[in-house]
Amino acid sequence: MGNPFHLNDDVCNKLKEYGCEKYQMSIDGIRETHDWFRKPGSYDCTLEKIGSLNRAGIRSVIMTTVSKTNRNEVPGIIDAVVNTGVNIFSFSRYVPSGGDLDASMTAQEYRESLSDIDAKFKYYEAQDCKTYFNRKDHLWTLYQYETGEFKIPEYAQEGMIYNGCNCGNCHITILPTGDIYACRRVAQSKVGNVFKDRLAKVWVSSLDNYREYDNFSKCSKCELLAWCRGCPAVAKGTNGSFYAADPQCWKEKNDLTGEIL
Prior knowledge:
Blueprint: H1 9-17, E1 22-26, H2 31-37, H3 42-55, E2 59-66, H4 74-84, E3 88-93, H5 107-125, E4 132-134, H6 139-147, E5 173-174, E6 179-181, E7 190-193, H7 199-204, H8 232-239
Parallel strand pairs: 1-2, 2-3, 3-4
Antiparallel strand pairs: 5-6, 6-7
Helix pairs in contact: 4-5
């Protein structure tokens, strides 16, 4: 992950020689919005450097952080990056980190955004677009469950985790300092340091606090527990608990049975 400002053909060729296979940059709105988030001129600069990465044989990736501020601009971002030839496009949701900034969407707003984004993805996919659209947000599972594109497999066994949030499952973050985090988007999730702690021990012990699937206040009652669980980072940033309900999950609970509908 990096910014575009130092990139040119020579730098990208060097990165390729050093083993860089994929380079991710951010676009967080159409030109005016993105330049307000980042700095003036950065929108056009980012789109321009997609070409430098592609020419060097490095997979170009654009990531968008979706919030209340820019959610209606995501289809326009997709148009821009596809037309520029980006290899991969994906997005994740804004994770609140305290303070006065309130950029969180309501659950219904987010579902509407997913519907709009899905339509845009399918439009380009039907044209054999070369851009790969990464549906990485786990609430895609809920959305596709409702549309019939995802069905619970017949082989599913109770108590097994098959997909969804990878925190504590098949994912950790190691920073340049050696600090190990359960998730880079979860505040206060440091579980060790690779220069001081044996990684295998951290994995089998310190990460247990992130594998208590029955503790998910909403997801544990949902039939999609083994495939979704929303984003615990957004839940913690919003409600202070990794196991709190994802604030953008629109699935409603039956007050009589306690089951998630």
